[in-house]
Write a structure and sequence with these properties.
Blueprint lengths: L1 E4 L12 E4 L9 E11 L1 H9 L14 E8 L11 E4 L12 E5 L3 E3 L6 H5 L2 H12 L11 E5 L4 H13 L3 E5 L3 H10 L3 E3 L5 H7 L5 E6 L3 H4 L7 E9 L17 E4 L4 H4 L5 H15 L7 E6 L3 H12 L6 E5 L2
Parallel strand pairs: 8-9, 8-11, 9-10, 11-12, 12-13, 14-15
Antiparallel strand pairs: 1-2, 3-4, 3-6, 3-15, 4-5, 5-7
Organism: Bacteriovorax antarcticus
InterPro entries: ADH-like_N (IPR013154), ADH_Zn_typ-1 (IPR014182), ER (IPR020843), GroES-like_sf (IPR011032), NAD(P)-bd_dom_sf (IPR036291), Zinc-ADH_QOR/CCCR (IPR051603)
Family: Belongs to the zinc-containing alcohol dehydrogenase family. Quinone oxidoreductase subfamily.
Length: 332
């Protein structure tokens, strides 16, 4: 089968992901073999491409968002059948979705929302699960009340889903950060109650909307730029949640306010086999929210064809930090 892979880690200006022919994946008893119809690209793809080389010359196939049709089911699969239309985010330690076919654990998979295309569906899994785990599954967030939650990077892939999930599943007042007209409008369109400019001092921006402190900050990008002053805007016993990788995570200044800190990594459940079935369940609930019109796909750009040129363009766009929403490649 056809796939896109590489063996040596590299930067974008040395882009060396190539079209390759590999054997059809062999499925395990609890696996599905999916004919991939569309994939989306996430920041994790670019980070792994920059940092990870193959240990034994086996090509590394990136990609952790896909939608498609089930071609085969393992002997122990009970919830899916051949022909089902599905969507999912895969595992870090298995071949990814930048291919025509992929073997994936059924526990990570859900049936695709019926009212959207494969292209729209492929934009959603990884970011939906990330936002859900960070916010809805976070037991320290008092979502039953009316918390005020600031999302840093509201127009990004995860931020775009976080806005919608919070509005659909809680009474939260959602404040998103954005700085350009198009990204500000995007956040408002997704349901943000307020949008503030992250290029300015966040405390000053919050004061403009008569908010002194927030109950929680969900930081999806450039955390190191904001971290030193976040204690000024998070209330005592509030929450700080992050998903990116700051070089230094010094939170000693959080101690006086007893600010609770959570580092969300959506691959943890599959890496450690810690209730991975919860991710399939989350995607099933997201599908229902999509079908009921409470959440929409965050697709913003579509590229036709699983080609090295299209994949490079997607990686370049992500690394420019100027994209918003999600970029999807149609495979078939």
């Amino acid at each position: 089968m056809r796939a896109l892979g590489y063996t040596k880690a590299h930067l974008i200006d040395q882009f060396n992901i190539q079209e390759i022919e590999i054997e059809k994946p062999q499925i395990k008893e609890t696996d599905l073999l999916v004919q991939i119809k569309a994939i989306s690209v996430n920041p994790v793809d670019t980070k792994i491409r920059q940092r990870k080389s193959s240990d034994d010359s086996t090509p590394i196939i990136l990609g952790w968002d896909a939608s498609g049709i089930i071609l085969e089911v393992g002997a122990d699969v009970v919830d899916f059948k051949i022909g089902d239309e599905v969507y999912y985010a895969g595992e870090l330690n298995r071949a990814g979705s930048n291919a025509e076919l992929q073997a994936v654990d059924q526990r990570l998979v859900a049936k695709k929302p019926k009212n959207i295309s494969f292209t729209q569906a492929a934009a959603m899994p990884l970011t939906s699960v990330t936002a859900w785990e960070a916010l809805i599954e976070n037991k320290s967030l008092e979502l039953h009340s009316r918390p005020t939650i600031l999302i840093i990077g509201g127009a990004g892939g995860v931020g775009s889903m976080a806005i919608q999930i919070l509005k659909a599943k809680s009474n939260a007042i959602v404040i998103a950060t954005a700085s350009r007209v198009d990204t500000i409008n995007w956040c408002k369109e997704l349901g943000a109650d307020f949008v503030i400019n992250h290029t300015n001092d966040l405390k000053t921006e919050l004061e403009k909307i008569n908010i002194k402190e927030v109950d929680a900050v969900f930081s999806t990008t450039h955390t190191s730029d904001y971290l030193p002053k976040l204690n000024e805007i998070i209330r005592p016993f509030g929450n700080f949640i992050l998903i990116d990788d700051p070089q230094d995570l010094n939170i000693s200044h959080f101690k006086q306010k007893s600010i609770k800190t959570t580092w969300e990594f959506m691959f943890s459940k599959s890496l450690f086999n810690y209730h991975p079935e919860e991710q399939g369940r989350v995607l099933s609930e997201i599908a229902l929210l999509v079908e009921s019109g409470k959440i929409k796909s965050t697709l913003k750009q579509t590229l036709e064809g699983l080609t090295t040129a299209n994949l490079k363009k997607a990686h370049e766009t992500l690394e420019s930090s100027k994209s918003f929403g999600k970029i999807v490649l149609n495979v078939n």
